[in-house]
Each structure stands twice: as structure tokens, then as C-alpha cells.
Amino acid sequence: MTASASNLPPVEAIQRLLDVITKPARLLVAISGGSDSTGLLVALSKAISPGSGVSLFAATVDHALRPESAEEALSVAALCSRLGIPHVIRRWEGEKPEAGLSAASREARYRLLVEIADEIDATAILTGHTLDDQAETVAMRAARSGREDNLGLAGMAEAVLLERRRWLLRPFLKTRRADIRAFLTNEGESWIDDPSNLNPHYERVRVRGKLATEGSFDAAALTRAVKRRTALSDAAARLVHDHVTIRLGVLAHLAPAGLAGDGAVRRHALSLLSAVLGGRAHALRGESTNRVMAFLDSGRPGRITAGRVIFDLRRDGLYLARENRGLMPLVVAPGGIAVWDGRYRIANGSAAEIIIGPTAPDREEARALFPDAPPAIAMRAMSVMPWVEANSFFFPAGSSTIALSQPPTAGQIHIMPTLAPFDRFLPQFDLNLASEFAVLLGCDVFPPLPVKDSARKS
């Protein structure tokens, strides 16, 4: 599915989705009771006929932030019952943060939706994000930087992979809220207005008011930004495929030919490669990337550190590895799962508590592990590999699965590399690039986008 800023009426947007979704399909609709998500559910229920190969489920996340939220969730349940659609309510339990509440709410909502999608084995999660939401998102990002190289100007992707396992689709991303409400009114359906949508404390509400007054959304500019971002990421994927190797998940090498060519492509690839190697959730920041690019453009051999990654330029190319500072040990209880240093997911299937920490480098072993790298770089790479300790038994983590064949356990410890910038939230824009990194690190492959190939390429 590709993004375009053309305005689609609700019925056409839903038909477009049903035309391209792979079948059979089990669709989980996230519905809050607001006009957008209610319009999404009602339009889907009217468009799907028996024998179509598409079934609907619905879920409401009660964030428990307002006294009336529980009652609103029950009113959504009543709507779903009337439409004959199975529905569940999940409540965001626990303490709510005083700062960053919107971001925390979004994280909790997606986490709970993924859990429900797992339970019903949903083909995709659907949300009611609209063209109005897209305009607000672009406006907020443009306020931070209106430069053409601001990737945020492409707005929200139509498809996003959550937690590496469930696709979220936004079929109304080219549909105006006013058209959705007109559709609901024509169908005799009502919706719930959330008072927080009128609270000027939130940036999005302030931007919404400004857009309503000025009408300044440039749909053509959004289309151009989407094409630029997709083309840039795909070109970076080709650069990685052709010129990058990663050994044992910790040492990357960019061949000299990869240091030539388009600077913007190289910049994008390296900013995300450094996030992968450094275990950081976000690409290298602009100022840090500027320093790295200036260093590389000088052509002089040497080293520079940015985003917890050492960039070591040699005559035979660029080597990248996590710096060996700040590698803290991590205790994983029996049966527990944890992430160490943002780079490895540890599943302790043993009956003993284990400790994950960095590997003590040994010159001869480092040369054996990284035979093509200069000795100093090989030692540096070995020092950031994970090491497992369990009750005085030590297990070097050179492979992804470590079988414990002696006491204290007969279980297994699984160590799998992660892709920190993509594991939780992967927009379709970067799917090809993330897939290249996944292959190089030996990660599990991403589930395919649940749309027909022709739609994916259009």
C-alpha cells in the first residue's frame, strides 16, 4: 500500500482496503467510540458480506484516564453487539506517568492491541487515523524542521509493523473526518466526543485549531515527501545489500565502494546502521550524523564515536562496532525474557538465574572470530559480544542458541539479536532497509505485509 494525499470517501477507502487485503483475513478494529474509529467499524460491517473471506473483531482500550472511560467502553461494546461483531475491552492498568502521558498512552494502546491480535491471530490491526490526523502530524513535524530532508514530513505510514509481529493498517489515512461524520450521520449512528480533543494543553489540539483557521495543509507536498522518503530508504537498502557485511552481529564493514555515491543515501543507511549496532531506538541525531559525515568526507583514516558506535575508517573501508563503555550486566531470572544493551533478547529457559555481560576479549580468539578485521578492531568487536554466566559456569555467546549440557540446568538459553530502531515500530517506508539489516544480523524475518503484491508496488 502506498500513500497518497487524495481524499477518499469512507466507503471507497474501505473498498480499497478489501480489494487489496490478502484473504482469508481476520481484521481487528481498534475502536474508541470516537467518530473516526466508529466510522471505520460501521463502514467495514456494511461492506463485508458472508463468504467474502474477511471476518471482523473489535477491541477497545480503556486508558482509565477519565471517570467516564469505562462507561464509554461499554457503549462501544453495545454497538458491536448490535452489529454482530465480537468485541473485547482491555484496561490500561497501573500508574500513569505525569510527564509524557500521550506517548505512554500510545505505547500502552499498541501493546494491548498486539496482545489481543495475538490471541485471535489477527491478519492486521486497523485504526481510524484520518487525513486530518495526517495533516496535524506533518504540521507538527514541519514546525520542528521544514527542510526537505526532514523525513517526518512524509507523515504517518499507511502500514506499520508492531513488535515485529502484527501489522497495523490505516485505511482512512486519505479520508477527511468531516466525510466520516457525514457517513455516520447518514447511517443513523452516533459517536463519542473526547473532551481532551479540545484541550489546548496538547500540541495536536493547538495545531488542529490552526489548520482549521488557515487551511494550510499541502496535500501535494505530502505526496512528494512520501515518495522522497520511500526512495531514500529503498536506496539505502540497496547500499546495505551491496556493500555492508555484519559479522557475529557486532562488527559491520562498509566497503570502499559504499563510501562513494549519493551522500543522502549513505547518511540514511549509516544513521540507522549505527542505531542497530548501538542498540538505540532512534536513528543517529542530525548533529551527530553531520559530524560522522564530515569525518568520512575528509577521507582521512581515523576514528570517531557517535551514538555509542565507533566509526573506524581504514583504507579497506569503514568498520562500525558498539563502543565498549557502559555495558552493564543484566540478571535474567529462570524462565525470564529480557533485552541486554538494547541489542540482544535473552530468553532464559534454564532453571537457574543467569547474568549477561560483555565478553572479555582474548587476542587469539578475537582473530579467530573476526579473521578479516584488523586485530585492534577484532578485539573491540569481541568485547561487546554478550557473555552468559550461571552459577560459576560460563558460556560465550558466539551463536544465537546456547544449550546448557551440564549443571545447574538442562534447559536452554536463547540469545537473539534485536533491531532496536525497528523491533517495536517499523513503518512501511523502511521495511526493505530493515529487512536487509535483519538478514545481516540473523534475526527472524518480518511477517509479510498482508496485501497483494500488486497493491504493494503501486
UniProtKB/TrEMBL annotation:
* Pfam families listed in its UniProt record: ATP_bind_3
- Give UniProt keywords alphabetically: ATP-binding, Cytoplasm, Ligase, Nucleotide-binding, tRNA processing
tRNA(Ile)-lysidine/2-thiocytidine synthase N-terminal domain segment(s): 27-208
The reply on keyword Acetylation is: no
Query: Which Gene3D superfamilies has this protein been placed in?
Result: HUPs
Any one GO molecular function term: tRNA(Ile)-lysidine synthase activity
Query: Which compartments is it annotated to reside in?
Result: Cytoplasm
Which EC numbers characterise this protein's activity in its record?
Answer: 6.3.4.19
Which InterPro entries does the entry mention?
Rossmann-like_a/b/a_fold, TilS/TtcA_N, tRNA_Ile_lys_synt, tRNA_Ile_lys_synt_N
* Residue intervals passing through the bilayer: none
Query: Which reaction equation describes what this protein catalyses?
Result: cytidine(34) in tRNA(Ile2) + L-lysine + ATP = lysidine(34) in tRNA(Ile2) + AMP + diphosphate + H(+)
Residue positions annotated to bind ATP are 32-37
CDD domains linked to this entry: TilS_N
Q: What is its main location?
A: cytoplasm
**So what family is this one in?**
Belongs to the tRNA(Ile)-lysidine synthase family.
Q: Which NCBIfam families match?
A: lysidine_TilS_N (TIGR02432)
Q: What does this protein do?
A: Ligates lysine onto the cytidine present at position 34 of the AUA codon-specific tRNA(Ile) that contains the anticodon CAU, in an ATP-dependent manner. Cytidine is converted to lysidine, thus changing the amino acid specificity of the tRNA from methionine to isoleucine.
Free-text comment on this protein's domains from its UniProt entry: The N-terminal region contains the highly conserved SGGXDS motif, predicted to be a P-loop motif involved in ATP binding.
Name of protein? tRNA(Ile)-lysidine synthase
